[in-house]
Inverse folding.
C-alpha cells in the first residue's frame, strides 16, 4: 500500500466480525476506518456521505443484500472499490457480486488474505479468494 491514507467503510451485520476486521485494519497506519455499519440501506447512505476508498461488504445484510448495495454504490460512489468479504462461496453468488461491480471477493475463512486483496483492488486488479480463484469469474 502507498503512503497516503486509505479510507475504509466496513459493512457487516455481525458485530464480532466487524470488530475483528477493524482491529486487524487498525494495525496499519495507512488505513483509516471511516465507518462501520450493519445494514444494507445504511451502507448506501454512509458510502454516499463518506465516499471511502474501499468498502468491505458482506452479502447477507438486513434491508438490502450486499449485491443490491453494490449495484447502488456503483451509481453513488463510483470511485469506491468494493470488496466483498462473505462466508458465501457459491460460484453463482461470487459471479453476481463481481457483476454488480465488486473489485474483489474474499471468503471469511480466508481473512488472512484481506490486506493482499485490498492491495490488489487498490492497484486496479480484481482479486478472488484462494479456493475460488480456480473458477472463471471474468
Amino acid at each position: 500500500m502507498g503512503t497516503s491514507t486509505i479510507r475504509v467503510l466496513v459493512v457487516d451485520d455481525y458485530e464480532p466480525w466487524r470488530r475483528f476486521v477493524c482491529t486487524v485494519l487498525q494495525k496499519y497506519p495507512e488505513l483509516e476506518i471511516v465507518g462501520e455499519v450493519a445494514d444494507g440501506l445504511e451502507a448506501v447512505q454512509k458510502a454516499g456521505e463518506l465516499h471511502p476508498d474501499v468498502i468491505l461488504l458482506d452479502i447477507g445484510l438486513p434491508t438490502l443484500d450486499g449485491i443490491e448495495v453494490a449495484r447502488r454504490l456503483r451509481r453513488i460512489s463510483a470511485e469506491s472499490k468494493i470488496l466483498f468479504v462473505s462466508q458465501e462461496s457459491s460460484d453463482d453468488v461470487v459471479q453476481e457480486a463481481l457483476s454488480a461491480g465488486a473489485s474483489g471477493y474474499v471468503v471469511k475463512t480466508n481473512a488472512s488474505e484481506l490486506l493482499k486483496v485490498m492491495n490488489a483492488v487498490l492497484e486496479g486488479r480484481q482479486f478472488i479468494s484462494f479456493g475460488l480463484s480456480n473458477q472463471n469469474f471474468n
User: Anything to note?
Assistant: The CA atoms of residues 20 and 26 lie 10 Å apart.
